């Protein structure tokens, strides 16, 4: 995915969260926080306010984080469901994205074919070289074997 499309997708996601889901998710988060806070106050009726307020503060922070994550996930799902054109108008006039002409297409096909033929000829040449290396060398060209050398040194 090109960088411009990624940026556009992020901007769309942010816009959906700000415009649509913030009015839905935020009241739900506030409701959850208030219900949990009241429940904690009823369960832990104590004179120590600090003991109760600290967990409530931590709970509020975690609920706000969860609601933000949920709203972004909903927005991402909505962006995925929305169909975008593959090429935006910004890139339509760019010569990189234009279709190749018929002559360029034929040139590309012939270049591809010549690469295939070259690869095939290289494989055949490599096989011939390997076969030549594996052939027996005539005795007059071959280096003396260890046995012959030891016999020659024994004679001296």
Most strands sheet: none
Query: What is the N-to-C order of secondary-structure elements (H for helix, E for strand)?
Result: HHHHH
Helix/strand/pairing category: mainly alpha
Query: C-alpha Rg, in Å?
Result: 39 Å
Distance between the termini: 80 Å
The average pLDDT value, as a whole number, equals 69
Strand fraction equals: under 5%
Q: Return residue spans where pLDDT drops below 50 for at least 5 consecutive residues.
A: none
Overall number of strands: 0
How would you describe this structure to a colleague?
- Keywords: Membrane, Transmembrane, Transmembrane helix.
- With 156 residues, this protein is mainly α.
- It has a domain at 3-91.
- Helix content is 78%, strand content 0%.
- The radius of gyration is 39 Å and the shape is elongated.
- It starts with a helix and ends with a helix.
């Amino acid at each position: 995915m090109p960088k411009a499309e990624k940026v556009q997708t992020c901007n769309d996601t942010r816009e959906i969260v700000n415009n649509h889901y913030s009015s839905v998710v935020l009241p739900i988060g506030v409701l959850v926080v208030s219900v949990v806070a009241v429940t904690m106050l009823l369960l832990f009726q104590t004179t120590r306010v600090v003991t109760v307020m600290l967990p409530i503060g931590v709970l509020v922070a975690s609920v706000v984080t969860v609601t933000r994550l949920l709203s972004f996930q909903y927005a991402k799902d909505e962006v995925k469901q929305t169909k975008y054109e593959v090429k935006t108008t910004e890139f339509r006039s760019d010569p990189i994205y234009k279709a190749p002409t018929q002559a360029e297409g034929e040139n590309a096909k012939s270049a591809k074919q010549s690469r295939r033929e070259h690869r095939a000829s290289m494989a055949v040449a490599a096989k011939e070289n390997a076969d030549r290396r594996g052939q027996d060398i005539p005795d007059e060209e071959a280096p003396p074997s260890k046995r012959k050398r030891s016999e020659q040194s024994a004679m001296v």
